[in-house]
Structure to design on (159 residues):
């Protein structure tokens, strides 16, 4: 009995790993039936002893899993874009595995092409888009560069 309680507490603690998927587009797949559901704004709740997986975008899209039927939560990492969290549980038809994974691409940070500075929210990005003039080193080539304020300031001070 003590081991059963210990496993239940461990599974509830491991459920925290699905926090990383909240407000993201995810795929929820049932391995046995190979059915995949897309959740465009994923969320979950624990309500009346059930784990409820829901889509904030589509309020009718809900999956209920009784907490006392969850036997294992595995594949626990904190990398949203590469992890797949498996929830193993039992229902009236036998053992099931529900897999949750992010369905978004990992964002690529925008960086300054001169110094490598990673732009954050509110940072000024200076865009240079120009076709090289006739006879120049870049004759006819499309030149496209992103610069940060510091690099533009250095460039302007060189004049």
């Amino acid at each position: 009995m003590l081991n059963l309680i210990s496993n239940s507490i461990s599974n509830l603690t491991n459920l925290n790993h699905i926090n990383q998927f909240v407000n993201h587009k995810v795929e929820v797949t049932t391995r046995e039936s190979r059915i995949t559901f897309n959740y465009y704004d994923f969320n979950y709740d624990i309500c009346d002893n059930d784990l409820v997986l829901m889509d904030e975008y589509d309020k009718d899209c809900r999956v209920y899993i009784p907490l006392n039927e969850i036997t294992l939560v595995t594949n626990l990492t904190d990398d949203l874009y590469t992890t797949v969290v498996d929830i193993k549980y039992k229902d009236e038809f036998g053992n099931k595995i529900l897999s949750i994974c992010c369905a978004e691409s990992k964002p690529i940070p925008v960086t300054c092409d001169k110094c490598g500075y990673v732009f954050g929210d509110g940072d000024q990005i200076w865009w240079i888009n120009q076709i090289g003039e006739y006879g120049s080193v870049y004759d006819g080539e499309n030149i496209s560069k992103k610069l940060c304020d510091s690099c533009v300031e250095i460039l302007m001070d060189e004049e």
